[in-house]
Amino acid sequence: MELTPADVRDVVRVLDSSGLDELHLELTDLTLTVRREGAAGWTAEQRVLRRPQVEGDAETVATAEPEAPRADVAEGLAAVHPPLPGAFYRAPKPGAPPFVDVGDLVDEESVVGIVETMKMMTPIQAGVRGTVVEFRVANGEFADTGAILLLVEPTPGGGTR
Fold first, then answer.
1. What structural domains does the chain harbor?
2. CA 155, CA 74: separation in Å to the nearest integer?
């Protein structure tokens, strides 16, 4: 089951009309906790459990995720996808330098951007060791789950997670 932004809105509406002070929801890809903070309203926390989807040629990428379309990815490159749909941001805040830029070296844990979904910011890790060669989604643009955010040329022997 996949939780959409509309599903989250519906959950919050139901909670607003109930007497509950907290809801904790665990799905395969996401854990969502929503708490009522007195008169101030609701706060939300999230933790993405799923690793980013990375695709590329069979020698450089080994992933348990279902395969995404490869038509737009040249052989030898790895594509990084967002774990959730939302607005993609290359920097932690407006005016700040980007997390990474074309030509930068990244490893599996490097944060390459964030996705904002329902006012919640989710960091996106590269999931592969290599060099950033291209961004496919511009700063501030909406990115669906299957979108290719950026391409990385994997370092030989660097592997992916």
1. 5-48 (no CATH), 54-154 (2.40.50.100)
2. 15
Nearest to 28 by CA among 44, 48, 6: 48
Q: Which of 1-10, 104-113, 137-146 has the lowest mean pLDDT?
A: 1-10
User: Which stretch of DSSP H or E encloses residue 13?
Assistant: helix 5-16
State whether residue 143 is helix, strand or coil: strand
What gap in Å lies between CA 87 and CA 129, rounded to an integer?
Answer: 24
For the segment 74-93, what is each residue's pLDDT rounded down to a tens digit?
888 999 999 889 999 999 88
3-class DSSP state of 132: strand
Task: Specify whether the CB–CB gap between 153 and 80 falls below 8 A.
Answer: no
